[in-house]
From TrEMBL:
Region entry Disordered, spans: 1-36
Source superkingdom: Bacteria
Name of the protein in question: Uncharacterized protein
Keywords recorded for this protein, A-Z: Plasmid
């Protein structure tokens, strides 16, 4: 899942802040699934 945020960043498709935002969303989603 993290690769989905990292790959476009490496290719210059999205900015660092956008990639960081995506990683935060991934982390939040993981926490939600862990709680259930």
């Amino acid at each position: 899942m993290e690769d989905a945020a990292n790959t476009p960043q490496k290719e210059g498709m999205i900015s660092d802040s956008e990639a960081a935002e995506k990683r935060e969303q991934v982390a939040r989603t993981r926490k939600m699934f862990r709680v259930r």
